[in-house]
Amino acid sequence: MTSPNAPHADRYPAGSAAFPQRDLIALAGLAPWEILFLLDEAEQWVELNRQPHKRDDRLAGLTIINAFFENSTRTLLSFEIAGKRLGADVVNMLVAQSSVKKGETLIDTAMTLNAMHADAMVIRHQSSGAVRLIAEKVDCPVLNAGDGQHEHPTQGLLDALTIRKAKGEFAGLTITICGDILHSRVARSNIHCLTTLGAEVRVCAPPALMPADIEALKVRPYYDFDAALAGADVVMMLRLQQERMSGQFIPSPREYRHLYGLTLDRLARAKGDALVMHPGPMNRGIEIDSNVADLPGRSAITAQVEMGVAIRMACLDVLTRRSRKVEGWA
Ligand code: ASP
């Protein structure tokens, strides 16, 4: 997975104009150059993270609170590592151990965290819109680590960085996203990100798992996986999000795999060098076969995890520049 990444400094304005947002709640509505700016910022952290000494102290003295109201493995760990590699004090609030279980309201929790003078908050919540609500109440920048079915912006960015490193420019790429589109915040963030950057995005799902208004997002819907795969440069598989389903959305996991599972035979319909992606956690043997998920030179699944730390370092650095009074950002 090598490909040159030409710096895009000529594509965005200098200083804080490159990323004027206070928070990172969604990729919908961001300009292409705002996204490119974050991807470019992450490149230096990809390099640092490959060194034995992975430390830059630019966030020393800052407190970052990761407040996770919904379970997470890789996103929580990735944000924690990102904050620590930049020298910040990182505190995790996991809902199972918090007063939220005692009935405290979301806003009371937010105000409590705010009173502790966090310099940035990273929030995951099971309800779409909850992270924006918190961002409106607190004084520091807020980063959305996934809110319900709405968005997971750092996942969209890390996927874009993974694709750029393997394939170069986005214009001219065909990217197929297949799986539980309806319940997937990862799909939504990726759709906004990749279409904004100029890629052609196809989405594929059984009819019950395809949002009714999907074409409004400038993607082409497919119900036949083989047709959706034809000539694709990137195949992104999504998990069936059973926890967000009320009722029966698929006939059976076996039937689902038969129609929408990524097998080696199916992958052959995409381009010969098509990249395979999955945000995790994977249901091996359902949406993706193990021999595809682990396919050397083609599977980017561990690269996605690696890019995740770099992207989160970039986002934490950029969003705290104002409070750190970095030149051009004060
Ligand atoms: N980890 C991703 C998310 O939090 C994808 C998934 O759970 O399937 O949305």
Helix/strand-derived category reads alpha/beta
Strand order of the largest sheet: 7-6-5-8-9
Q: Give the total of beta strands.
A: 9
Instruction: Report the total helices.
Output: 11
Shape: globular
What percentage of the residues does DSSP assign to strands (E)?
5-15%
What does this structure look like?
It is a single chain. This protein has helices at 32-49, 74-85, 106-115, 130-137, 153-167, 185-196, 225-229, 253-260, 264-267, 290-293, 301-319, and strands at 63-68, 89-94, 120-125, 142-147, 174-178, 200-204, 220-222, 234-237, 275-277. By secondary structure, the chain is of the alpha/beta class. The chain has a 5-stranded parallel beta sheet. Helix 2 links the parallel strand 1 and strand 2 (89-94). The longest helix is centred in the C-terminal third of the chain and has 19 residues, at 301-319. It is globular. Aspartic acid binds at residues 146, 152, 185-186, 239, 241, 279-280.
Main attributes?
330 residues; alpha/beta; 5-stranded parallel sheet; 4-stranded parallel sheet; 9 strands; globular; disordered N terminus; binds aspartic acid
